[in-house]
Amino acid sequence: MRSLATQARTASGRLTGADDATVIGSEHISPEINARPLNEFQLAPKYIVRFGAQVVTAAGEVRRWLSYIFHGALPGTVGQLRQFLTLQAPGIGFGSEELVTGTTGEVEITMA
Predict the structure, then answer these.
(1) Cα–Cα distance measured from residue 54 to residue 64, given in angstroms and rounded to the nearest whole number
(2) In angstroms, rounded to a whole number, what is the distance separating the alpha carbons of residues 54 and 93?
(3) Could you list the residue range(s) of the whole structural domain that residue 41 is in?
(4) Does 33 score more than 80 pLDDT?
(5) Which among 54, 83, 88, 82 has a CA at the least distance from the CA of 68?
(6) What's the pLDDT score for residue 17?
(7) Comparing C-alpha atoms, which of 13, 30, 4 is closest to residue 109?
(8) Nearest residue to 96 (alpha-carbon basis) of 48, 57, 60
(9) E strand or H helix at 54, and its extent?
(10) Fewer beta carbons below 10 Å: N end or C end of the chain?
């Protein structure tokens, strides 16, 4: 379990530090602790993308981790992923009493 946590932290660091033109590859993705077997994953890929967001609450502005699930392919580059998350972030918080105002640039991708 410790090695999975280290692998996730390393992959997240590579992804967060990558420039927008970088193609998303296996070095940016880590397995979820309870991930399905690889042969099942290949038949129906599912990625959980966790990202940092700026959120306005009744108590003021805070940072939160939000999640988006991709069923199928991820965007091709880090820039495309960041743009997608920036556009989707306000909708992810919609319906709650919190307002998502933007993303922090921190991103983590896991295979589910």
Answers:
(1) 7
(2) 11
(3) 2-111
(4) no
(5) 88
(6) 93
(7) 30
(8) 57
(9) strand 46-57
(10) N
Percent of the chain's residues with pLDDT above 90 = 49
Quote the DSSP letter at residue 23: B
Q: Residue 39 pLDDT > 90, yes or no?
A: no
Residue 104 has pLDDT above 70, yes or no: yes
* Structural domain count of the chain: 1
| pTM: predicted TM-score of the whole model, two decimal places | 0.83
Greater confidence (112 vs 24) lies with 24
Residue 85's nearest CA partner among 62, 57, 104 is 104
What is the mean predicted confidence (pLDDT) over 12-24? 94
- Residue 95 reports pLDDT greater than 70: no
Buried b (16+ CB within 10 A) or exposed e, 67-101: ebebeeebeebbeebbeebeeebeeebeeeeeebe
Q: How far apart are CA 15 and CA 20, in angstroms?
A: 10
Structure tokens at 61: 């502005």
